[in-house]
Specification:
14 helices
């Protein structure tokens, strides 16, 4: 029985074992719990929000948080139009996460494809991709959004596409570096020697080995996309009112910070803690999936 147990234990994926060990740490558990709450708010806002986020009431405008005063039913207070801040934060979670996740998916598809091609092909193809990366990194995403918005107007699909395009260079550089380190390994050389086509070598032998790095960088890009979306909404270049977004709520409440601080502070706290939780989870994934760090820990 002990021999069987030992054999099964040895057959477990070491990356999964390291990932489980990292996720059991207090910081990772708190991050996962917070992100689970955020995900539930994004999926089921109508079941959680206490009020309609679009319902206005001038009589109830700029009320302080009820958990501090003990009066009223608006737990985080109301904004300048009498709308419940907590409900708008909950509904804004869906908008912010949907835009950020869609942008990260676009960035991962483009970045992984370009990184795989550049890293495997090398030569002038690699040089061309690197020049495209340099050109993209030299152009700030905010200026790009301003230019496109001025030309065709504000649009959520266009915003997602622009955010995704702005993030692919970082992903491509990391994927390219991993591909370069993998393409000269023995099993890749063996597949090339028996006449396997390049597309098969890339998809079957190289791509699975860069997947862990792609997952880690995608988590960091997700936090960056949340911040970019909030910045663009704050500047009026993102999702337009009255649709609730975290950045838009901060922009709307900045005029009333001295008299009604809650309208800006709590959406800012939602952004801060969400990004912090994602980064903490990204650190745990990096420590678990990076073979060099795993070897150091063992």
């Amino acid at each position: 029985m002990s021999a069987v147990t030992l054999t099964v234990g040895r057959s477990r994926n070491p990356k999964l074992v390291a990932l489980g060990r990292q996720l059991r740490s207090p910081v990772a558990l708190i991050s996962l719990l917070f992100l689970a709450v955020v995900l539930v708010c994004a999926l089921f806002p109508s079941l959680i929000a206490p009020f309609d986020p679009y319902q206005q009431s001038i009589v109830r405008r700029l009320r302080p948080p009820s958990f501090l005063t003990g009066q009223g039913s608006n737990w985080l207070g109301t904004d300048q139009l009498g709308r419940d801040i907590l409900s708008r934060i909950i509904y804004g979670t869906r908008v912010t996460l949907a835009i950020s996740l869609a942008a990260v998916i676009i960035a991962c598809v483009i970045g992984a494809l370009m990184g795989l091609i550049a890293g495997y092909a090398g030569g002038w193809v690699d040089a061309l991709v690197l020049r495209a990366i340099d050109a993209q990194l030299s152009f700030p995403v905010i200026l790009l959004v301003i230019a496109v918005t001025a030309a065709i107007g504000a649009s959520v699909p266009v915003l997602i596409l622009l955010m995704g395009i702005s993030a692919w260079p970082q992903i491509a550089r990391i994927v390219r570096a991993d591909v370069i380190s993998v393409r000269e390994l023995e099993y890749v050389e063996a597949a090339r020697a028996i006449g396997a086509p390049p597309i098969r070598i890339i998809l079957k032998h190289i791509a699975p080995n860069v997947l862990s790095a792609l997952i880690v960088v995608a988590t960091y890009e997700l936090s960056r996309m949340i911040l970019i979306e909030a910045t663009l909404s704050f500047l009026g270049l993102g999702v337009q009112p009255p649709t609730p977004t975290w950045g838009g709520m901060i922009s709307e409440g900045q005029k009333y910070v001295q008299t009604a601080w809650a309208s800006s502070v709590f959406p800012g706290a939602a952004i801060t803690f969400t990004i912090l939780a994602i980064n903490m989870l990204g650190d745990a994934l990096r420590d678990a999936l990076d073979p060099r760090l795993a070897n150091e820990q063992t």
